[in-house]
Write a structure and sequence with these properties.
Number of helices of chain A: 4
Strand order of the largest sheet of chain A: 1-3-2
Oligomer: homodimer
CATH superfamily of chain A: Winged helix-like DNA-binding domain superfamily/Winged helix DNA-binding domain
CATH architecture of chain A: Orthogonal Bundle
Number of strands of chain A: 3
Largest interface: A-B, 59 and 53 residues
Distance between the termini of chain A: 28 Å
CATH topology of chain A: Arc Repressor Mutant, subunit A
Chain lengths: 122, 122
DNA sequence: ACGATATATATCGGCTTCCGATATACATAA
DNA sequence: TTATGTATATCGGAAGCCGATATATATCGT
């Protein structure tokens, strides 16, 4: 699953939202660190719909502007949970390894004189 | 940062590794959930090198086979830490939102009295 | 009244990235 | 001698991302 798809699913996880709302919500929930682009959004929405992870929930006209709301399917919720677990595991692995690397200085220093490093870690 | 780049950096976080070793390590550290492809690897390695996040550590010839070891730069360590934080935050947000969505049943149910399209699951 | 900004949809084309296939080469096991 | 594993790398098609663009309405400031 792509980053963009993950954040779209996350934005939809608590309630149905329309395209523009997803855009704003992703920015907000990521504290501004992820900026989902308009040109990216509709392709993602189409792929997630085709994949059965989201469905069109309803269409509303508010103040003369069309709003097209999407929501997660049960499969979408499951996929998002699985992806969240995967990301959390990846993040945890990275953190642990950084700590290990700092304990074993060879990793962040110029190569030692001999070929025989690659010690017992990992 | 792409997924592939993140996992390459993670594989290198504890010690220098060569290309093929990165491939196996990514699969192992992710419990088989991430399969970095050979065709993807070298492009990623080039981009990370150009970006200053990794450097060529050394080259060894073991049993007639060349091994080209890469290691993280200090900047690479910092970038990996930042990305790990970002991913962990994203994963946490997703989990929290799924829980919220389950408290608010409207999100996972068919629209009330709507035009009746797209019933249950896809 | 007019222009800028915000809301809201969507498409297009270029660029980056991904990945299966392919190629080369040596070691080991069946 | 055939297959599998280790190890490098490239190529081309496909997928995905994103800036630019288009359309339309509402609001706010000047």
């Amino acid at each position: 699953m792509t980053q963009a798809a993950f954040f779209v699913l996350t934005a939809l996880a608590d309630q149905p939202r329309h395209g523009y709302g997803i855009l704003r919500e992703v920015e907000e929930l990521s504290d501004g660190t992820v900026q989902l682009r308009v040109g990216t959004l509709y392709g993602v929405l189409d792929r997630l719909t085709s994949g059965g992870l989201i469905v069109l929930d309803r269409e509303e006209v508010q103040q003369g502007r069309l709003r097209r709301y999407y929501r997660l399917t049960d499969e979408g919720v499951r996929a998002l949970e699985a992806e969240a677990d995967r990301l959390a595991a990846g993040a945890g692995a990275a953190k642990r390894r950084i700590a290990e690397g700092r304990r074993a200085p060879g990793a962040a220093l110029p190569p030692a004189t001999g070929p025989g490093l690659a010690g017992g870690l990992a």
